[in-house]
Amino acid sequence: MYCEAKKGEDNLLSRIFLRAIRKNKKYNLKVKEIVLGRKFTYVMTEESLGIAFNPLLEPPDSSLILEDKTIEDLVCLVWSHPTLSSIALAAINAASSLWLEDNKDKVLWNADITKLIPSGNIAVIGYLEKEVKKLIDKGSEVTVYEFDRDHLRDAMKEGIKVKYGYQLPIDVNKYDAFVITGASLVYPEILPILKNNSYKVMIGPTSSFFPCIADELNINVLGGSKIVDIEKVSKLIKAGFGFKALTRYVQKWTWLGKSVISDWNH
C-alpha cells in the first residue's frame, strides 16, 4: 500500500485519519484530480470535493499527481511534508463531505460558533480576524499564534498580541482554551495542543473532516464547510482565489462534542 511505502502511519494524525477512512469504507473513493491553487489545495472524486489550506511548497513526489490514488492513499501522508499534509487534509475532507450528505442531522448548520468559545485567557492558533475581535469584545485576553508571516503582520497591524506558531510547545499550558484554524493541522507543531486537555474549538474549511476525528483529538467543537457547488469552487481555486470568493458556494456546519451538547441545548 502507498501509505506503507511512504511510512505515513508513523504519526498521531495519520493514524487517526486512517482509522476514520477505514471505519467509513464507503467513502474511500478513487481520486479524480489533485490541484494546488494559490490559496487552497483540492482533492476531487467523482462525487465530492475537499479543500485545505495550501502552504505553497512544491510536492516532493510527482507520483501523487500522475498515478491513480484513493482517498486512503492520500490521508496517510499528513505531517510528512507541508504540501502532502495539505493534500491529505483535502482528501479526508472530500470523503467527509459525503458522510455529511448521509448524516445531515448530526451537525448544526450555519450556527454562530463564537458562542461556543468561552471567555478567559485564549490562544488563537492561526489568525481569525472576526473571531478574535468577538473574543476581545467578550473580555477575553487573546494571543494569536501564526505560522504564516503575512497573517502575523495583519494581526500586528490590528494591535493584537501575536507570537510565532513555533512557540506553541513552550506556551501550551498557559491558556484556558484554544481556538484553532484547521489550516494549522498542516504543521506538526500543533501536536502539543492536540494532546492538551484544555477546551478546544477548531474551525475553518481545512477542518471539514469526520467528527470522529475531532473526537479522537479531544476537540470540543468542530466547525467546517461543506461545498455545495463543486464546479464553481474548483474553478475559483484553480484561478487562485481565497475563501472569501468561495463562501457563497459552501455551507458552514458545526459539530458539538458530548460535553458541549447539553450547554448548547440550554
From TrEMBL:
**Annotated Gene3D superfamilies:** 3.30.390.100, 3.40.50.11590
Q: Which domain of life is it from?
A: Archaea
The record places domain Putative heavy-metal chelation at: 112-254
Q: Do you know which SUPFAM superfamilies this protein is assigned to?
A: Dhaf3308-like
**Where in this chain does the record put each DUF4213 domain?**
27-96
* Pfam entry (one): DUF364
Q: Which InterPro entries does the entry mention? A: DUF364 (IPR007161), DUF4213 (IPR025251)
Q: What is this protein called?
A: Heavy-metal chelation domain-containing protein
Organism whose genome encodes this protein:
Acidianus brierleyi
